[in-house]
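RECORD TYPE: inverse folding
INPUT: structure tokens
STRUCTURE:
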């Protein structure tokens, strides 16, 4: 019997041999319990093997998807697993027969075992006298032969030798000096063996079959991937839409991972001409754009794929050669088409075809400061029109001057609000919960803030004289808070003479708003 590689399996086998030796001396409760523990250990080992086989089949299937020629090996692995399951089913039926034969109609325990685990008569009767042991011997040898036959194809001689060496499922030879003085394997193995020992030995045969199948499946799987080329050279590829662009055009590029191997030996041709590949499997193509119009290059790359098979890829790349552009000033307000008083107005300004370091930008009627490559900040102080001035020198040394007009405007008036409303009906509870009045800029892209400086609150309550309070700042003062705390349905609150200051420092009078309490 081959020695298993798994340390856990080696330990289980050694324990089994020790317990068999102890059985020859005496069948004690301690030995019976030890056999029960051993049987559980073998069962746990079998579950671990099942998980390994499941993982191997998933890897096997993934490898066959990449290399369809490996399907024949996957079919053999499937048969091997089937033979193992058929063998295990026969052994489990024999275990059940022994346990039920010993229990004589009584219910088995939770582990499927008979009550009298030291029963020697039942295993001897079934396995030795009734000949089921000889059937077991034939089943083991038949399953072993089926396993080995899967490696009989030409070219698999080395695989078969490796598998046979690792094949655990076998019938041991009966030693010549055995005390039973018998050549019969079943008698040597099972005569006068307690039930728990016989059931555990059968469990070991099941485990050997699973181990054997798992080893064979791994060997077959290696046939699918042994030709696989490992890619060990990785790089980032950037394929741009163009190497030079006119300012304002969009730049696009494909970015992806490339992998290569010296074993793949790529052969590259571009527009029908062969190019030598460097150590990384790359070729460099250069040409001068002498004529205008659309151009293209077509690259053919022949290589060996991950399983050593010859493959060819073709890719076409198109580009266009255009004449040098006319110089055009490009000025745009980043957020809006006007400059606003009191705000930092971001502006992008450049001249197409002129380098940024050879471009000057200034402003007539406003202050202009640089805020990065091609970006500026404009500040205006009075409404009207301002001029953004650009000057520069092109590659031919020609001086260029341009002026682009922009409108300078005041920031629009904000809208006074209480809560989320700028007037209308409001529930008394919601109205009483407010802390003050604010001024919001609506539909304005800049983050500009207005501070409420003051207002007059007038209260009209049915059947009562008008009441009023002058408030300083946005937050309700004591007088306003007392009037608002008395809000009840039917009362109308007027906010008049509302004054607010914006980023430009100017005080503005905002329209009145009114709220009716409901």
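DESIGNED SEQUENCE:
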């Amino acid at each position: 019997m081959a020695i298993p590689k798994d340390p856990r399996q080696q330990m289980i086998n050694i324990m089994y041999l020790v317990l068999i030796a102890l059985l020859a001396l005496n069948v004690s409760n301690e030995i019976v319990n030890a056999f029960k523990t051993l049987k559980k250990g073998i069962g746990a080992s079998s579950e671990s093997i099942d998980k390994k086989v499941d993982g191997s089949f998933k890897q096997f299937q993934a490898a066959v998807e990449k290399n369809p020629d490996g399907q024949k090996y996957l079919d053999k692995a499937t048969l091997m697993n089937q033979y193992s399951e058929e063998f295990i089913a026969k052994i489990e039926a024999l275990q059940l027969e022994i346990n039920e034969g010993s229990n004589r109609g009584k219910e088995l325990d939770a582990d499927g075992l008979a009550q009298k685990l030291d029963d020697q008569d039942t295993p001897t009767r079934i396995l030795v006298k009734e000949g089921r042991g000889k059937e077991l011997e034939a089943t083991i040898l038949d399953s072993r032969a089926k396993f080995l036959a899967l490696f009989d194809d030409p070219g698999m001689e080395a695989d078969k030798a490796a598998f046979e060496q690792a094949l655990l499922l076998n019938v041991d030879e009966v030693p010549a000096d055995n005390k039973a003085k018998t050549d019969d394997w079943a008698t040597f193995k099972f005569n006068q063996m307690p039930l728990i020992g016989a059931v555990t030995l059968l469990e070991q045969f099941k485990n050997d079959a699973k181990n054997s199948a798992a080893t064979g499946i791994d060997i077959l799987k290696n046939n699918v991937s042994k030709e696989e080329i490992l890619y060990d050279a990785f790089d980032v590829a950037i394929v741009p839409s163009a190497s030079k662009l006119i300012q304002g055009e969009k730049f696009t590029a494909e970015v992806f991972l490339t992998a290569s191997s010296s074993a793949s030996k790529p052969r590259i041709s571009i527009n029908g001409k062969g190019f030598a590949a460097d150590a990384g499997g790359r070729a460099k193509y250069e040409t001068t754009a002498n004529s205008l119009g659309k151009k293209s290059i077509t690259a053919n790359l022949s290589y060996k794929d991950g399983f050593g098979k010859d493959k060819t890829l073709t890719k076409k790349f198109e580009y266009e050669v255009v004449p040098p552009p006319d110089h055009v000033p490009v000025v745009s307000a980043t957020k809006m088409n006007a400059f606003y008083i009191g705000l930092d107005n971001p502006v992008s300004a450049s001249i197409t075809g002129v380098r940024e370091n050879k471009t000057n930008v200034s402003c007539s009627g406003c202050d202009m400061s640089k805020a990065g490559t091609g970006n500026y900040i404009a500040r205006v102080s009075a409404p009207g029109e301002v001029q953004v001035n650009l000057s520069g020198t092109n590659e031919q040394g020609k001086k260029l001057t341009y002026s682009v007009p922009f409108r300078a405007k005041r920031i629009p008036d904000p809208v006074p609000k209480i809560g989320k409303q700028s007037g209308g009906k409001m529930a008394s509870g919601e109205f009483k919960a407010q802390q003050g009045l604010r001024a919001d800029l609506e539909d304005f892209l800049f983050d500009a803030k207005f501070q409420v400086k003051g207002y007059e609150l007038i209260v009209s309550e049915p059947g009562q004289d008008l009441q009023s309070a002058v408030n300083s700042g946005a937050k309700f003062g004591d007088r306003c808070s007392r009037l608002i705390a008395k809000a009840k349905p039917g009362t109308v609150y007027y906010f008049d003479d509302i004054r607010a200051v914006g980023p430009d420092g100017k005080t503005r009078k905002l329209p009145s708003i009114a709220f009716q309490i409901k």
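NOTES: Residues 7-225 form one domain.
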